[in-house]
Amino acid sequence: MRIALFVTCLADTMFPQAATATVRLLERLGHEVVFPQEQTCCGQMHVNTGYQREAVPLVRRHVRVFDPYDVIVAPSGSCVGSVRHQHATVARRAGDVRLASRAESVAERTYELSELLVDVLGVTDVGAYYPHRVTYHPTCHSLRMLRVGDRPRQLLGAVRGLDLVELPAAEQCCGFGGTFAVKNPETSTAMLADKMRHVLSTGADVCAAGDVSCLMHIGGGLSRLRTGVRTVHLAEILASTEQSARSAARP
Amino acid sequence: MTRRTFLGMPATTPPVTAPAGVGHLRGEESFPTAARRSLADPQLRRNLRHATTTIRAKSAGVIAEQSDWEQLRTAGAAIKADTLRRLPDLLEQLEEKVTAAGGVVHWAADAVEANRIVTDLVRATGADRVIKVKSMATQEIGLNEALEAAGITAVETDLAELIVQFGDDRPSHILVPAIHRNRAEIREIFLREMPGVDPALTDDPAALAAAARRFLRETFLSTPVAVSGANFAVVETGTLAVVESEGNGRMCLTVPETLITVMGVEKLVPTWRDLEVFLQLLPRASTGERMNPYTSMWTGVTPGDGPQTFHLVLLDNGRSAVLADEVGRQALRCIRCSACLNVCPVYERAGGHAYGSVYPGPIGAVLSPQLTGIEDNASLPYASTLCGACYDACPVKINIPELLVHLRAEAVESRPRPTAESIAMAAAAYTMDRPRLYAAGQRAARLSRLVGRRGRGLPPPLNGWTASRDLPDPPAQTFREWWADR
């Protein structure tokens, strides 16, 4: 299948390993990945901060860039959530009905990684190998905007060598919330402290999630406290194989 | 008194919001400033964590028993949406039915009018004291303060409200207003403020409840006027309903000679069949009970039974403005169950006082700014991570995250420009609409980070991030560079 990668601006700029892993994984599964180079950002940061008018050109760009593709994937529940639940609203609010309906059409073809794998490609065992103790944070937008349910856990459950440990209070937000972490840094940190406490209580070496934004937040806290727990994107785990584990010092 | 029969109609004048200087819809500080204080209070954090965790679990248990919960939510949302759509007509029908049953209906455009109406009504009875059923509407308008200014004492009869009142305090939760107090504090408050209290009172919860009961029973029997709110008004018969747990409401609604009910105009349900839906939704969503212990209903006055004089004050106080907003009006579906507070990770840590309004938590963050106008509560729509737990919990399916985002846009668009933020956002949007400039920006960001130290170096207003979190080292290659190289 020919799949267009919606890389997301944060993964592109700060966490390319999540995006390269997505490419390697899909190619290993026999699919063709294309990267439309004119893409930039879906505009979620603007919308969620109150700058819906400024987001209109970004929505228009996103729709124009991805409209030609039948299947689009992003390694992010949050950015797919924005495409699915915000783009048409932003367009409609700006009075652009045509853009709204094109945005809806693109949204229907846009999938978060675990949705693509389980629902579209029909695979739960991707042949991955990852010999680590891992706990999984489900991320709010994957859970409650996209309703990905247990798809990521099905995928992780089939990874050889992986010891999946239950994260207590997993469904509670980590406190990132994009602009929230900047406008309400103290409440955000209080939420992060509880999330980290739960992560540490599992004894896991790796905290995984399907969103680099939440991982940047949780990982930023775990790193500041020198806990030694790493944050890793779901795609990186699924892209790991016995071969890649042998050739890399760190998975 | 203004008769507002244009509710929901296309307004020719700007919608009227709740007036400033009266009532409790506006905080003195922004949310982040007020939250800072609560976050540093270990007792408050413990109480909030314990109470919200307990109610969440209890509520989830009884909701799981109800196989048609989702259909009930859908029905609740639909009934409320329909009611709001024909609110002007329904309000006039309600007035007709209540009047026919011997009640007197008053229309209050705002808090000032409502307070004046109630004060005049109490004065006319000659009473200098009223008993009160827990009511959000009367707190919203600051009725107790208005009565006090007129020399009338208002006694709250809900146990937690009584604690708040004796403590000269403000409620911090819609359902559990004294959630921020522990029993040692309650004992001290009772010893200090409760007339005729036993000086040997302990902090045993049963002893505290017994002390309140003794005080309240005497008050019930000696006070001829009660003031209540209402959870619902059934239009087809003009029947009012109050649901509660302690029986204090039943006492207030049946013992006194005069009953004055202050109710927001959005509290209507068209028929008794509609009420059935809400009497199933409300207790399960709010207290985690299958059924609340007391449901009191009354229709006008009944000779020889209960209050012989009944006044209904219909309160607007900004609700027409909310109704005029196509996206915002869904907030008027709220039945004040507080499920959204109990599941909110922000509320659980910051507590109710941080919101500055009698309506705290997620519903407060979308209702208060609409009632007052966004300028007066501009920080509230940002007091959320948009995690969506509130939307899932809401028994009438108010899409609170959608509303928060909508109100953030209103906040931004109502502010004079430019601000530092608006310049940054415009610059970011400009850059992100130009892929080559965007790629150049990525390289520049990498260079600037390389010269700074790990985990440091972010300037205000982004320094809140690096105060408690590291930033990762920038990658050697962006994804698009890697893609171009492969």
UniProtKB/TrEMBL annotation, chain A:
Give me the segments passing through the membrane: none
Q: Which GO terms describe its cellular component?
A: cytosol
Which superkingdom? Bacteria
Q: Could you give a GO molecular-function term held by this entry?
A: oxidoreductase activity
**Residue ranges annotated for the Cysteine-rich domain, each copy included:** 3-82, 134-218
Matching PANTHER family: LACTATE UTILIZATION PROTEIN A, UNCHARACTERIZED PROTEIN YKGE
What is the name of this protein? Lactate utilization protein A
Automatic annotation (TrEMBL), chain B:
- Domain 4Fe-4S ferredoxin-type per the UniProt entry, residue ranges: 331-398
Alphabetical UniProt keywords: 4Fe-4S, Electron transport, Iron, Iron-sulfur, Metal-binding, Repeat, Transport
The record, for Gene3D superfamilies, names:
Alpha-helical ferredoxin, NagB/RpiA/CoA transferase-like
Q: Residue limits of the LUD domain?
A: 91-301
Leader peptide range in chain numbering: none
Query: Biological process GO annotation list?
Result: lactate metabolic process
| InterPro entries found in the cross-reference section | 4Fe4S_Fe-S-bd (IPR017896), 4Fe4S_Fe_S_CS (IPR017900), FTHF_cligase-like_sf (IPR024185), Helical_ferredxn (IPR009051), LUD_dom (IPR003741), LutB/LldF (IPR004452), LutB_C (IPR024569), NagB/RpiA_transferase-like (IPR037171)
Please give the Pfam families that the UniProt record associates with this protein: Fer4_8, LUD_dom, LutB_C
Q: Which PROSITE patterns match?
A: 4FE4S_FER_1 (PS00198)
**Does the keyword field hold Secreted?**
no
Domain of life (superkingdom): Bacteria
- Tell me one GO molecular function of this protein: 4 iron, 4 sulfur cluster binding
Could you identify this protein by its name?
Answer: Lactate utilization protein B
Q: Give the source species.
A: Micromonospora lupini str. Lupac 08
